[in-house]
Automatic annotation (TrEMBL):
The keyword Transmembrane applies. InterPro entries: Glyco_trans_2-like, Glycosyltransferase_2, Nucleotide-diphossugar_trans. The lineage of its organism: Bacteria, Pseudomonadati, Bacteroidota, Cytophagia, Cytophagales. The keyword DNA damage does not apply. Pfam families: Glycos_transf_2 (PF00535). Signal peptide: none annotated. This is Glycosyltransferase. It comes from the Bacteria. GO terms for molecular function: glycosyltransferase activity. Residues 4-138 form the Glycosyltransferase 2-like domain. The chain crosses the membrane at residues 227-251, 263-285. Its main location: membrane.
Amino acid sequence: MKISVVIPAYNEEENLPEIAARVKEHLPGRYERELIFVDDGSTDGTQRILRELRAQDSEIHYVLLSRNFGHQSALRAGIDYATGDCIISLDADLQHPPRLLPELLGHWLNGYDIVYTQRADDERLPWLKRQTSAAFYRLMNSLSSVDFEPGTADYRLIDRRVAEAVRNSPDVDLFLRGFVHWVGFRQKRVAYTPDARFRGKTKYTVRKMVKLALNGITSFSVRPLHFATLAGMGISVLAFLYALYALYILVFTQDAVPGWASVLISVLFIGGIQLLVLGIMGEYLGKLFVQAKQRPPYLVRETDPGLADLRPVRP
Ligand code: UDP
Ligand code: MG
């Protein structure tokens, strides 16, 4: 039985030795283990530390990406290289406590294919982060057909079969949280209280969060497009009624005052809706565009010699 642990790291030099030690401490040594660190184009000493860790410990591996491809792509790279019977992913900053590892493994041994974790609402997290996270899950759930549970980030265990589905998915921008829900299989939830970040500060900028949220919504739902259609129909009906009313005023009454207010309001309103609908269309069109180019989700610059390349040949 072999267990793979995938840890994406973007400028996490101060956290790496600690997370490696803690993961090994909590993973029973009787299993074959492999820790795969994915350096997501870090600009600090992450790469050097990874080489050092690798030199000291043959269970540690690294994949260096050619630039910063983002957390989701880094995760995917790690999954692509992992050879274990199950694959556990967690953040490098120790917010995902390694003490849960035995519990995750236990559920897997009992027959679950996906063991995912749910973070309890943590008072210590910044207010804005909590609010945006909660709003994100509310929006996702109202817009998509997949049920997303709040606080389920990328700390999870997946069986080899699920990893195979991830590898074979042709999505260029795979939204793992949604995908892992979508695949089905036997799933088990584990609740936990997150720890504070060990060192350094968050690598998820507001820009990266917005990108992730938009990707999540457009990956798992076409409801926004329905909304565009519905809004278009509703406004057309209203516009038609208003036109009838205007005709009535013009033909049957004497007070056809040049009503600039109503004209202004309707023009602004319809203009706004048009822009919104165009924007929604653009989001999906952009997604199709990116997907049509069939670029790989990440590029690898180097791996340590001990790592076999299992990456599927993507179209
Ligand atoms: N990360 C990454 N690439 C990025 C941003 C983040 O690989 O472009 C990694 C980061 O090193 C960490 C994990 O993703 O291991 C989660 O990031 P972070 O802890 O900064 O996010 P937060 O916990 O603040 O949401
Ligand atoms: Mg973190």
